[in-house]
Each structure stands twice: as structure tokens, then as C-alpha cells.
Amino acid sequence: MLPRHRVIGLGIMLLLLLVAPPFLSSFLLTLLTQALIYGILAMSLDLILGYTGLASLGHAAYLGLGAYSVGVLTTRHGANFWVTLAVGLLLAAVVAAVFGLVALRATGVYFLMITLALGMVIWGLAHRWVSMTQGDIGISGVPRPDLGLPWSLAKGIPFYYFSLAGFLLALWVLWVVVRSPFGQSLVGIRESESRMRTLGYHVWLHKYIGFIIAGTVGGFSGVLWGYYNGFVSPADVELATSVEILLMVALGGRATLLGPALGAGVIVLLKNLVSVYTHRWLLILGAVYIGTIVYAPEGIVGAVRQFAKGVKPEPLRSKA
Amino acid sequence: MIRHVVALGLLVLLAATPSWAQEPIRIGFLTILTGPLAAPGKEMENGIRLFMEEHKNALSGRPVDLTVLDTGGTPAGTLAKARELAEQRKVHVIIGPLAAFEAYAIAPYVNSQRVPTISPSAAADDLTQRKATQFFVRATSTSTQPTQPFGTYAAKTLGFKKVATIADDFAFGHEVVAGFQKAFEDAGGQVVQKLWPKLGTTDQGPYISQLRKDIDAVFIGFAGVAALRFLKQFEDAGLKGKIPVLANQTAVDEALLRNMGDEAIGVVSTMHYSAALDTPANRKFTAAYRKAFGTDPGYYSVGAYTAGLFLKQALEKVRGKVEDTDSFLQAVRGVAIADAPGGPIRLDRHGQAVHNIYIRRVERQEGRLQNTVIHTIEGVSQFWNYPEAEFLKQPAYSRDFPACRFC
Amino acid sequence: MEFWITQTFNGVSYGALLFLLAGGLSIIFGMMRIVNMTHGSYYLLGGYVGLTVIWKTGNFVLAILAGALTIALVGLGEYNAFLRRLGGQELGQVLTTMGFALIFQDLGLVIWGGDPYTIPAPAALSGSYQIGELFFPVYRVFIVAVAAAVAVILWVVLEQTRVGAMIRATVDDAEMARGVGINVPLISMGVFALGAFLAAVGGVVAGGFVGVYPGADFEILPYAFVVVIVGGMGSLKGAVIGSLMVGLLDNFGKAFFPELSYFTLFAPMAAILAIRPTGLFGRA
Fold it and tell me: CA Rg, chain B, in Å?
């Protein structure tokens, strides 16, 4: 299975996440919760970006679909957690299935553009379908879920563990997918579509299924996101959000699953903590975007791996 | 000898002062300092900075520790910053945020954390109506508080019969138009056309050319650059001077007016304030503001400054004992100020300001544009002349309510 | 009739504005395959520089030139230092240029403040031509003229000159171009700078019409992408037709289906891409 040192590393990480809450202030805990939720989203994008090589500029749409499911169903119909979860996942899956049909006709920059357009359609809906979404104001007053547990999820620590459970579940699902023969063929497609085709693989179908899984897991993060914030608004499905998820994946390291989750953590902390100390935090965020590509094109995980191997990191690959 | 007396005196003073007196009062200020809404956000910050400077960073004998945070203009960012303020900095009171979608995002949270929050800008009606919370009060108008009396005024005093409306296609635009329409039609007028350019519409041309030719006036509900753009393109289309323009509270705000040209002259608008308001309190305020920042104060800065006045009065009432959340909140909700820059202001039982509404006309005075006050409507409530219970029973003002019966 | 004339004129002039925005992107994106999220920033910063120049000198033409040249240099710097090495790496391009877009956005705010401005156009360009009951704002006519001039110049340069031939050769097959002795890096740099230059021209010209304000960068970026995509990348003809189509579609969409104004741009874009994944006139 996994090399021993990685098992130990993962074990320590999990242990830290498990024992952290009592040592953190309630504010840092909420940020960590947010990082876990965005981590799910970034991992879901990693499935198509990292493993399959499809850069989507519209992945925020699935976050929005999950979150809006929660917002609409809880505030208007008093739905419980399981109903919102089911609807959120189903909605994300269906939309991904439809969008996938359109988007997967294209590759490269065209895929970027078509996913951008589709993402903007969802954004337009969030703004314009006021009777459903309440437009730019968004839906607020979403109650935290009641799972009949002895701990109230309205409190910070229980909700943190709830999100951690969700995170581990998503990690497990995605891990199984990428480890499966199906996941291996996704990687094969990324490396060479034509070879996979010659070998008799149905390339399109593989991509399509990967796209739907990614969207569905993205929707799952959206469900948690809706409950975490207690509201949902069009800002969740903006183009800037989609680009930010791309950054999380690239920063952490593509095709590593945990790397993107780490990237999500870094960005969430950066956005929320740095901006407390300086109002010019956008300059720093911008520098992180550029610095990631220049200094860590394989992300944090890639840099660490190279460091462990004693290879000097190559600053910027030149193809020209 | 003298040294000993002074030392003894200080000792006595120290002993007599309660322990909390030296602890600063911690105030969190939520605004937007990056992105498209940074300019109004900065104006808001100016308002509170001026207030603090005038009071030498101390209220009710206690030093004030003001933390200004940038929400980034997103609801999630605002909630994160509110959490930072409430849980990390343990602030006693929050002033902000700027936008309605931000206020909706944090209102339930500040209520659960029991942090009194004074909104200097976010205007959405329901924040102090159907979704009012104990800990949220407002030092500025609701969206419709200025436009409802304006509707009545447009029908009764200006004598307009048929009016078209055009406003940003987002909640604030929907509300200002709806409030105007309701009061205008109840006073005998007819809104015959409603146009909604989506936010960020670069070209207003297609909308302007759709305006009906048989209207007496057009009511606009814009904020920010859209207002600048509309008035310019309206003039270019040859309509200025032919169709009078009525404007909501933000379209010809002082912050925009200074970058407008002659195209704005003659626009009649409605708001709870004007930098040209000629009262002693406002003369003092505008003079100090101009001296500090070189510009006229407007919607955002007067809101933040007035929020400061609220805080000051409430603190005086509890003698600086801001830690006693219940009595402090009660004091905040009971604020009544006789001489705020915009005139007398008090809070109703929903925590919403009751204050004067001014009808203003854009004129050029000493080379710069200003909002000359042409009519004052005193003590306007968020419910205008409608009975409160009846008002709250009807649906919230929106894009579809009231329906356009005469379109 | 009146309605059709006015709306068509509005649509054409809006299309012309879009062409100024998208022409540069069509070159950078279409020819060099660089997904440039900074394009909107070039447009905005160009407007800001133009604004400063016109405040200082009062000269509109100088404002356009100064804005465009400054931004061409900025673009050149960004390309040389970073983008040159990211050929074919879409993700790297998106993230690098997004980083620049955020930095430029904040620098613009720091330098010029966040107030919205209108670029004061010369008196000759204000007012309208009146024909019967119809008004045709002079500034809109001016925008159409500028866009037409830019399109013609680009066409002549690209199709009729030696430099144009070298550019086309580089775009089509860089290896081959290098083989026949074309200075490929220089040509690429020049093309990128030209794209930035055009975006800034658009920024100054549009500044007299829609204003210069923070947020304009990310507001126009999707529009520019839509135009390039609808027209098809790497095709000047596509950019011209794409701009006009989007301009007219947006205009009549707003008039006939105001409820759908959030979708009149992106839904057709998605539809066109679904049917023709390389745009209407694009090459694979």
C-alpha cells in the first residue's frame, strides 16, 4: 500500500486535526473548519484538474449548488440535514452531468472557456432567479443541522468535528476513486489521450464520469459550506471563487489529493488572517498566485517531495 | 511636599476610579477597503475617524480602541471578520457593515454573540422590519425610508402623473423603486414602466432608448458608477431638460457628485442628509470633514459619524459601563439625538432611525455641485404614513411588489 | 422603425466598444494561446493613466497614446518576466495572470483611489447628431470610428505587410518560423505588447463613455472572453463579427427579454461552444 513514512505522516496530521480544537481560539477553529470545507472542494477539483488534466474555470458552481440547496430547503421547507444532503448531491451531480456533455467536447483553453461560460450561467441564475435565490442579498438564517447527536452543531467544536468527518469521508471516496483502475486510466488519459484510445479505453466516458464525481463531491462541500456560514449568496459562485480553487490545487500540488486540501488551508488562513493585519492583502494574495507558479510549479507537496529526494527544485519549466 | 500631595491625590483618584475605567472600549468597524466598493468603504472609515479624532479617542472617560477591518466585499469575508471582532478581539460594539448582503450575513451571528451592532450604511428594509434582531440597529435610512415620502412628494407637490423607473437590478434598486412606486401610486400617480439594467451594465443606451415618451419624469435608483454613466448617457441621448430626473438617495450622493459634470444639474433627489444642509450642527460637521479629507461628506461618511454619535450617547447613559451588555443595548436602542448632522434622529422600537428626509436639487454653487435642500419632511419613520401593522403584513418591497399595474 | 434604428445603432456602437476591448485579447489569447486574466487590468489601468494625462494636459489624443504605450510596456514586462516561459501551460497562465490582475487592481486603488471617474472628452465629441426625432450621440459615433480604424489597421498590418506575414507564420508554427530565420521571441513579445496596447486604447476611449472605476477590470474580462470565443480565436474577422454579434445580441436581448439579461451573453457562448468547440470562425 503506502510507504511507511507517509502512513506515519498522515497519521500525525490526522492526530493533530483531532486534538487541535481545545488548543485553538474559537476564531481559529472556525477558520480551520472553513479550510476543511474548502479542502473538500479543492480535492474534488483535483480529480479532474490534477488526475485528468482538465482545468475548469467554473468549479465554484458546484459549491453554490450545494449551498443553495441547503439555503432554500432549510429556510423555506425546514428540511433536515439528510434531505438537504441528498438534494445537494443530486443537484450537483445532475448539473455536472449536463455541463459535462457540453464542456467535454472541448479541450485545453476551450475547456477553460466553456467551463467559465457555464459557471457564469449558474452565477446569472443565482443573481436573477430572485424568487428562488433572493438575488444578491442571498439566503440567510440557515440553521445548523440537528442530527440528534448529544452535541449541538451550533457550537464551534462539534461543527468542526462534523466537518472533519465530512472531510475524511470525501478524502476516502476520492482516494478510492484515484486508486481504482478507473482513476489509473484517468491519469493515463492525462498523459496521453491517443494512447489510451488505442488501448481501447473509452476516453470520453472516463472523463465524463470523473467530471460528474468531481461535481458531486464539490456539491458536498457546498452543503457543508451552507451550514457553516448560515447563508449563501452569489459571491460563492463568482469567477474569482473558481480561480481561487484552481490556485488551491496548484499551490498544494496537483494529483496529490491532500496537497490541494493543504493549499485550501493556506489560502483560507491567508485571506482571513493577513487581511486583519494589512488592508493591502490583495497584493500578497496576488504575489502568492505568481509565486506558486514561479517557485512551486508542482505545489507544496511537489516541493517537499523534491526536497526529500534531495533534488534541487526547478524554478520554472520552459517549454518555448 | 507638593510632590507628595500630587502622588497622594493620584492614589486617591486611582482608588476611586472603578477598575474598568482604564480598560479601553473596544469598537470593531467593518467596512470595504478593497475591490469595487472601496471608495464608499473609505468614506465610511473617514466618518468614524473624524468622530474619534473629535473625541480624542475617548468616550465617557474611557479610551477607545478602534479596529477597522476590510470585509473584502463578500458575505463570507464579512462573517469571518465579524467572528474575528467578536471572538478574538472581544469588541463591545460593531459599527458596519457597508452592504446589505453583508449585513444579512452577520445579523444572526452578532445577535447570537450578543454584540450590539450599529449599521451606518446597509439599508435593506427587512433588517429592521420582518427580520429585525435585538442587537442590530441602524443609524441610517432603510432603502425605502427616503423614497416613500419622495413618491408622495412627486405626486402631490411636483404634480407628476406618469413616471418611469430605472434602477440597478439588485435588492437595493428593487427596494428604492418599490417604495417610491407604492407611495406615488397611493397619492394618485402611476408608474408606467419599470426598467432594470443588471448590475455592471456598461451601456445604458438600450434602456434609455426604451423610455416611454409620454412620461412626466423618470425615477432612477442607482448606486456608484451606474449613476454617473446613466446621467451622462441620458444627456447624450438628448433627454436632459426634456424629462425631469428624480433620484434615490445614492445616485447623486456627494461622493459621486464631485466627479459629475453639468449633466447632473437639476436632478431632484431624496435623502436623510445633504452636505449643503444649513444647520449649525451640519456646518460644523462639514467644515471639519472638508478640513480633514478635502471633500464633502455624503451618505457613507455621515452614516458612520452618526453611528459614532449613537455610541457616545449610549455610553454616557450607562456611564461608560459597556460591559453590562443588557443595559448598554437598552441604551443604544433608546438613542435620541437632537442635533446630529442630518438633524434630529431617534430610534423606533425596531432599532431603526426616525429622522428628517430632505428633498434636494443639484445646483452649482461656487463652482462645485451640491445638493441644495428644497424641502424638508420631518421625523420620517421607516413605515412612512402607513400603519405599522398593516405595513408589516404586506410582502417586503421587491422587484415584483408592488406589481406594475399601469405598465 | 425608430426603435429598430436606435437599437441597431446602440448595438453597433456597443459592439465597437467590445471590439476595442476584445481586439487585444483576440490577439493575445487567439494567436498566442495565452489565457490572460490581466487583460481587464490593462483596460482599467490604461483608462487610469489616460485620466491622469488628461488632467495634467487636457489633451485627449495624448491621453490615449500615453495610456496605451504605458500599458504596452507593463504588458511587455509581465510577458518577458513570466508568461514567456508558460507556453502551453493553461493553469500556470491563468494563475500567474490572475495574480497580476489582483496586484494591479489593488495598485490602481492605491494610486487613483476608488472613486469612479469619467474621462472628460473633447467638446467636439459631446452632444448628439439629431436626425428627425432620433438622437445619435457623437461619442458613440466616435467609438465606432475608432474601432473601425483599429480593425482596418490590424487587418492591413497582419495581412498585407512583411511583419504581418512573420506574425502569422509564428502563430501557425513557431518551429518552422524559427527555421526560416524569423526572430520568434521578438515577434511574440511584440504581439503581446500590441494586445496590451489595444486594451489600453479601449480603456481610455471607453472611459469617456462608461467611466473609469475599480471593478471595471473583472467586469469587462468575461465580455472580452465571450467575444473572442464566439468569434473564434486567432481570427481578426472572428473578433470583428463576434463583437458586433455580441453587441447586437446584448442590445436586443435587453430590449426584448430584459429578464434574461444575465444570460444573453453566457448562454449563447456556451451554446456556440457546445456546437462548435472552437468558436464560429476559429481554427482548432
Answer: 22
Q: What is the pLDDT of residues A78-131, one digit of tens each?
A: 999 999 999 999 999 999 999 999 899 888 888 888 898 899 889 989 988 888
Q: Where are the domains of chain C?
A: 2-275
As a CATH number, domain A28-143+164-309 is: 1.10.3470
Alpha-carbon gap, residue B106 to A218, rounded angstroms: 25
Tens of pLDDT along A256-283?
Answer: 999 999 999 999 998 888 888 888 999 9
ipTM of this predicted structure:
0.86
Length of chain C in residues, anyone?
A: 284
All cell numbers assigned to B52 = 474619534
**Is the CATH code 1.20.120 the one for domain C2-275?**
no
Per-residue burial over A245-259, b = 16 or more CB atoms within 10 Å of its CB, e = otherwise = bbbbbbbbbbbbbbb
Q: Tell me, what DSSP letter sits at residue A155?
A: S
For C274, nearest residue in chain A (alpha carbons) = A102
Residues of chain C in contact with residue A320, where contact means CB-CB under 8 angstroms, are 84-85, 87, 174, 185
Q: Tell me the one-letter amino acid at A254.
A: R
Closest by CA position to A253, among listed A179, A194, A199, A306: A306
- Phi, psi at residue C57, to the nearest 5°? -115, -25
Instruction: Give the per-residue pLDDT at A312.
Output: 55
What strands, in cross-sheet order, belong to the sheet with B136-138? Answer: B58-59, B62-70, B25-31, B93-95, B117-119, B136-138
Which residue bears the cell 435623502? B271
B100, A231: Cβ pair inside 8 Å?
Answer: no
What residues contact residue B349 under an 8 Å CB cut-off, 6+ apart?
none
Alpha-carbon distance B236 to nearest alpha carbon in chain C (angstroms): 5
Preferred mutation among A204, A293, A295 to probe C, highest tally of C CBs within 10 A: A293
Asked if B2-142+279-341 and B147-276+356-393 have one fold, the answer is yes
What fold does the segment set B2-142+279-341 form as a domain?
Rossmann fold (3.40.50)
Single pTM value for the model: 0.89
Q: Which residue has the cell 425610508?
A: B145
List, in sequence order, every residue forming a beta bridge with B25; answer none if it has no partner.
B64
Provide the H-helix boundaries in chain C.
Answer: 2-25, 32, 39-57, 60-81, 90-112, 138-160, 162-172, 174-179, 184-207, 216-231, 236-256, 266-275
Which DSSP category does C30 fall into?
I
In angstroms, the CA C186 to CA B367 distance is: 52
CATH of B147-276+356-393 given 3.40.190.10, 3.40.50.720, 3.40.50.2300, 3.30.160.100: 3.40.50.2300
pLDDT of A71: 95
pLDDT at B4 over 70: no
Count of pairs with CB atoms under 8 A, one residue in B, one in C? 109
